[in-house]
Amino acid sequence: MNKPILSTEKLKAFYVLEVHGTQKVVKAVNDVEIEIMENEIYGIAGESGCGKSTLLKALAAVIEPPLRQLDGKVSYHVDGKTIDVSSLSADEKRKLRWVYVSYVPQGSMSVLNPVSKLKNTFQDFITSHVEGKSQQEAFRLAQSHIADLGLPPQVMDAYPHQLSGGMRQRVTIALAALLEPRIIIADEPTTALDVVVQRGVVQLLKEIQEKLKNTIILVTHDMGVHANVADRIGIMYAGKMVEEAPTETIFAEPLHPYTQYLVNSLPKFGDKTPRDSVPGNPPSLADLPPGCPFHPRCPHAMDICKEKMPEYIAIKSNHKVACWLVENEKNGQTS
Ligand code: SF4
Questions:
Q1: Ligand 1 pocket, residue 111 CB under 6 Å
Q2: Which pLDDT tens digit goes with each residue over 141-183?
Q3: Using one digit for the tens of pLDDT, what is the confidence trace for 185-229?
Q4: What is the pLDDT of residue 108?
Q5: Which of 261, 300, 326, 334 to mutate to test the pocket of ligand 1 (most atoms within 8 A of CB)?
Q6: Can you give the C-alpha Rg of the chain in angstroms?
Q7: How much is the pLDDT for 65?
Q8: Which residue's CA lies nearest to atom 7 of ligand 1?
């Protein structure tokens, strides 16, 4: 059994907004407890606006909005020690980045310098993070890294806008893997790419993880991508984790009604019946319904669901879920 490399305790990330003189608290990440293992690809799925990206930023210690409340704990378990990331200064957090953890935000253009050839971006990245490397040594290191990952050498002489979206995304991921970080955190790396190009990006992530034996945390709302690449999947809804299990279990025996909708919405080979999508709209994170936040959309909602949030409990050693239906069944009660 692999050891944990990253864990959270009661992690909260709230944005506090002023709307027409009234303060609104946007509960983007609300009491999230996860444990992510060494040498695994952990997928996080959920609809847009459920807090996935804020969770990733909190895990990567890059969350810096002007108004925020950050609470709870994020710990990295690396090199035989536990680092409580939440208690570090901004400077100490910066030092952890790229070496222990690399964060690939949404949209490759936000990472690459648009007015710099990629070889310069790679060289600057190496010389500013690795002491004693000359520009020439940095160039050679970047070249061999690009070749190792099967990317064409010509990309080094290109500006970011000269590459296709898929190639730019692969170059961004190559940059994130350059210093062999123990954890790579990637936010929607396949969004806006066509299916064939998506496959290349997913394949690259898999190859990097196999080569470095590190951990990849991957956010995407595309369950098809998770099915291809993730070892375990966490399902997020309205700022909370509502189900977590190995990928095969999530697809074969989803327990939370929201997960069941996500799985059933995927097209199945040879099955022409219309797919079910999740009814209604996700709730506003600034105005969550009481009880289980999924209850206004849930076909199984009971009275208790409208009043009390279910606990996030382990149904099996590797399967957790937060749903009254499942909890009652486990306790031998019927609704
Ligand atoms: Fe549906 Fe109730 Fe389960 Fe929420 S707790 S998902 S409303 S059955």
A1: no
A2: 888 888 888 888 899 999 999 988 888 888 888 888 888 899 9
A3: 999 888 777 777 788 888 889 999 999 999 999 998 889 889 989
A4: 64
A5: 300
A6: 21
A7: 55
A8: 295
